[in-house]
Amino acid sequence: MIALIVISFLASAIAVLVFMRRARRHARRYAADMPQRFHKGHIPRLGGAGILIGMGLAWLAAGATATDPFNVGWPFKVAALTLLCIAPAVIGGIAEDVTQKVPVRVRLGLTACSAVLLCWYLQIGVHRLGYYPIDQWLQSMPYVAAFIAVLAITGLPHAFNIIDGYNGLAGTVAVLVCLAITHVSLQLGDRQLAGMVVCLVGATLGFLLWNYPRGKIFAGDGGAYVWGMVIAVACVSLVQRHRAVSPWFPMLLLIYPVWETLFSIYRKLARGQSPGTADALHFHQLIFRRIVRVAFEDSEARQLLARNNRTSPYLWIFAAMSIVPAVLFWNRTLVLALFCLLFVVTYVVAYLMIVRFKVPRWLRP
């Protein structure tokens, strides 16, 4: 599998470098007054295209020969058709990155289309929720199980898009989540599933080479959609294939982007706003504004970049609060559910403390 990481890393790093050097014109369309903008200058947002190229080439290489040299059992046909199923969502995200003119409803529709194709082709569904009467009902209602899987695969890309606010933030969270899935998959002997997400790890590292800490290119919507769709498919497949894995393992593993999304929807509705309205009140944006100190640099651009880079480690640690226990207790439903509850309470308390300017001194560097 190390060879797959190398292939995906090199392919992604080279592709991202090409986009970074040759595809800058579209970056001027990203308005300076947008609430999500925390950088100076015109930065290309085609990192997601490089991630897709790196991951896709590694997937195809894994099944290119009948001898299975990488020992992952990932057939060429399956890899190619899975890429085709993902394509509508990712292409929609890349189109938004380039034009800034693709409506949210269209992108949501394209991710739903990809989710339906993936569930149909891979025959996956959410047949277990960890409560026996509901699990028994879901197993007798395959269309409901497939519908829940479609919702999960449709929603997670947009959840990653929400937390993709600072250099290295969403990319590193995606790497940590993929490594956790790889660890559990290998413990269960599922090398195919491990190989699938390992390729995403290598491709993401190739992107992060240029994204953190220099911020030369961003993943954009395309990158968030690649991370969300592949990770969602991997999580649903892992729980479906192996009864030893608790269905709450993916929930705790991804509770940070999922709860950030649900909480954002709640606070916008509470203020009478549409959930699709962009704002600057996400958890990572509050940390940037109220915890990370102003860096003293010789230019405003360098100052903003320094603060941007200092924000991500706070969120990496915050995400690790759910990823680490998920890996330790991946087969224990009650423990995982309690950690999910603990994370939600911790998030809400921390959010309210930051909003009310009651941040402890030890959190301020």
Name the overall outline.
Answer: globular
What share of residues are in beta strands? under 5%
User: Helix content range of the residues, please?
Assistant: 55-70%
Radius of gyration: 20 Å
The sequence of SSEs as H and E is: HHHHHHHHHHHHHH
Describe the fold and architecture.
By secondary structure, the chain is mostly helical. It contains 14 helices and no strands. α1 packs antiparallel against α2 and α2 runs parallel beside α9. The longest helix is centred in the C-terminal third of the chain and has 29 residues. The radius of gyration is 20 Å and the shape is globular. The chain starts with a helix and ends in a 10-residue tail after the last helix.
Q: What is this structure, in a nutshell?
A:
The protein is an all-alpha fold and 365 residues long.
Characteristic key phrases:
single chain, 365 residues, mainly alpha, 70% helix, globular
